[in-house]
């Protein structure tokens, strides 16, 4: 039933179908992505105006305003997210450096802790504003940092946490 000629036809059919599939994918890619990646020198055919602008929109109060009315007791609760890696006791490091007296302290200044060096390229001192930016998005603020925390997106949580940290070691 299956002889050499039948197997050759089946193999030829499979290879032919595969070739048609690859060529069809290449042709579709050329047709639908002609403007992307430097292919073509003409503008997009049409634009849809969504009313959005490229300029960042100021949302809500500034960090300084929120920090002025921050609640250190609420910040103590927010610190629980940090406590698995950071300690509050002076000279006691965890996975991260001690946060004892961190507000106002120079960056990368704890003796005996192996810093990545990424923070020194961005800031010199841990001001409340610098801490807020770092805690919001650590890897976005200091690319190359070893801190694996995703960040605190809520400005009130960051302000409360920094208010709490400012009471430790001052």
UniProtKB/TrEMBL annotation:
The keyword Metal-binding applies. InterPro entries: Cyt_c-like_dom, Cyt_c-like_dom_sf, Cyt_c_1A/1B. Keywords: Electron transport, Heme, Iron, Metal-binding, Transport. PROSITE patterns: CYTC. SUPFAM superfamilies: Cytochrome c (SSF46626). Signal peptide: none annotated. Residues 70-169 form the Cytochrome c domain. This is Cytochrome c family protein.
